[in-house]
Write a structure and sequence with these properties.
By secondary structure, this protein is an alpha/beta fold. It contains 3 helices and 8 strands; from the N terminus they run E-H-E-E-H-E-H-E-E-E-E. The structure holds zinc ion (ZN).
């Protein structure tokens, strides 16, 4: 299960709408306690994909390291990744699944005509994505 602080969710939604019709992306900063992940902040990273920003995202390893440092400052860690699907559902693509890691949460925002219409979180279990419940707090 994933718990997400309301302010972090609002930040991700605003970012996904601002970057439409391109995919937006970033890292989830929080805490892990077994299979429960709690997100306290969203760390925006530029979409480093050079030529398919409308349906692919990529996080530069240098941005990943910066996010990790930021998380440590607050006693947190990276617990997952978020990105948007412009004009597509909030289900992971095969590409998303192939690149995912176990133990992380993956939130996907579906953006239609510049507005976030839905979002869901996914976790990788035995190489396959499975939807996980999102609980908003704060
Ligand atoms: Zn995707």
């Amino acid at each position: 299960m994933l718990r997400v602080k309301g302010s972090a969710l609002q930040k991700m939604i605003a970012q996904a709408e601002r970057d439409y019709p391109y995919e937006t992306c970033g890292l989830l900063l929080g805490k892990m306690e077994g299979s429960l992940r709690t997100v306290f902040g969203a760390y925006e990273t530029p979409n480093a994909n050079p030529d398919r920003k409308n349906d692919r995202y990529e996080i530069d390893p240098r941005d990943y390291l910066k996010a990790e440092e930021k998380a440590k400052e607050f006693g947190l860690e990276i617990v997952g990744v978020y990105h948007s699907h412009p004009d597509h559902p909030d289900r992971p693509s095969q590409f998303d699944e192939e690149r995912a890691f176990e133990g992380f949460s993956y939130i996907i925002f579906s953006v239609s005509k510049g507005k976030v219409v839905s979002y869901r979180s996914w976790e990788l279990v035995d190489g396959k994505f499975r939807e996980e419940e999102i609980l908003i707090f704060g």
